Amino acid sequence: MKRWERYSHASLIEDREDDRGRLFISPKGQRRLDNVRLLHAGVDTVRQLYAGMPCEWQFQQIIEVYSEGRGATMELFGHQWSVGAGARHSGFRYRLQNNDLGVIIFFYARHVKLDAIGSHLKVELSPHFIHEHTPEALQAFMDNVAAHMLAALEPRGCAVHLALDVQGWAPPADFMERFVTRSKKVMRIDGIQQATFDVGSIATTYGEGETYMFGTAGALQCCIYNKTKQAHATDKLHFWESIWQTATGDEPFSHTYDPDETVWRIEMRFHQSVLREYAQGTPCNVDTGEVLAMDHGFDRYLDTVPHLSGLWRTALQGYRLDHSRGLIDPVWQLLQEDARFYAIAPDYFYKRARKAPGLGNEKNVCLAFGNLISIYARQGFTAKQAMKCLVKSGFWDDLAAYYRRRGIHRDAFRQLLEQKLIERRLLGRAA
Question: H helices within 201-261, ranges in order?
Fold first, then answer.
């Protein structure tokens, strides 16, 4: 799969690529993606599984409360819990839930005897509980729950949902035609009845392209949906806007939230069985390619944290939007390469003071122009294509002002551009 070359203004001046640049160039043309804003990259759901034998006194206490009927509650670990039956598809008999805290505890596996060691406990954490705690604190909380409820305790894997919230991009009209996945079955539903996405179907589209879902809940599932509409429907918009408004990045366009613009979410849901398979492989450093140590295991949520960005990149290769045959879509490449999970935020926020077009930076304009022409020639651009791309390159105002002061206007500049492309192909670095 071919990828686009990435450049920034600074890298064009220095005649090098920039792996975080927003100017994408390939033989298929040029795309400038300054308008795509990554508002939030984070963990949306954690489901930690534990094996062991249920503590009899704890089990009896839950049974007594459960027998009181609907609305019964009990206090555990310093919190109040509503006690009810676990849904049949959950695989557990009992459910302890505290929506205010943002935690659900599933207890006593349906298909394992009470006096046998098995996967009797699953702790599920909601987004707001995850955002309020560090990974270490999350793991300590779940381990404490397990220690109270199980004997012969052993972590048995976890499921993790990774989410990236984006503005400035929406699935295009031909999204389904260009989206690459191993899923073969495609379902289309014209209306949406409720704002939950626990469907296990292979590939589903809701409400005229408002939600796309690929894969099954028991494997690696990809879900792309209108997060603004879903947050409205679940009355969580205030919470998510507080996340989007305070998000920071190392570029001005990485964190500008517009409340009047739709936020789209790309979500990758890793079932514990999938992470277990990844744990049997050899992960590489997401940036350098260096092979990491093999002591990760992925048995606990905390074990997965250093690898989340690498897992994200891997998932977006398996579920991929292509520009054309053999070439990834530039926006999808941006989403795949730039998302960082639990990345350390910058200590300062920097704001650029821009120079007036073409004044005091003539040398940089010439360097960037020359290097960009070499790139266009190497990619086989025609003079018409190169001219169109230059206008959208981000420094056209500087370049036009530079040549205008020298008496070279549009027609003369086109001839100059064509001549430079020919020179690069015949004599220069593009040959």
Answer: 227-233, 237-246
Tens digit of pLDDT for each residue in 14-51? 999 999 999 999 999 999 999 999 999 999 999 999 99
39 close to 399: Cβ distance less than 8 angstroms: no
Helix spans in 70-166 (H): 127-131, 135-149
What's the CA gap between 212 and 171, in Å, rounded?
9
Q: E strands, 99-185, where?
A: 103-109, 118-125, 150-167, 179-180
Residues 6+ apart with CB under 8 A from 60: none
Q: Distance between CA 409 and CA 113 in Å, rounded?
A: 84
The pairing of strands 37-54 and 118-125 is: antiparallel
Q: How far apart are the first and last CA of the chain?
A: 24
Burial class (CB in 10 A: 0-12, 13-18, 19+), 219: middle
Q: How far apart are CA 213 and CA 185, in angstroms?
A: 11
Closest by CA position to 168, among listed 255, 66, 234: 255
Q: How far does Cα 30 stand from its chain's mean position?
A: 24
Q: pLDDT tens digit string along 342-401? A: 863 323 222 323 444 445 567 778 888 888 888 888 888 888 888 888 888 877 888 888
Closest to 227 (Cα-Cα) out of 203, 214, 243, 248: 243
Model pLDDT, residue 206: 57
CA atoms in the 13 A half-sphere facing the CB of 139? 14
CA distance 332 to 221: 17
The answer for 151, left when phi > 0, alpha when psi is -120 to 50, beta otherwise, is beta
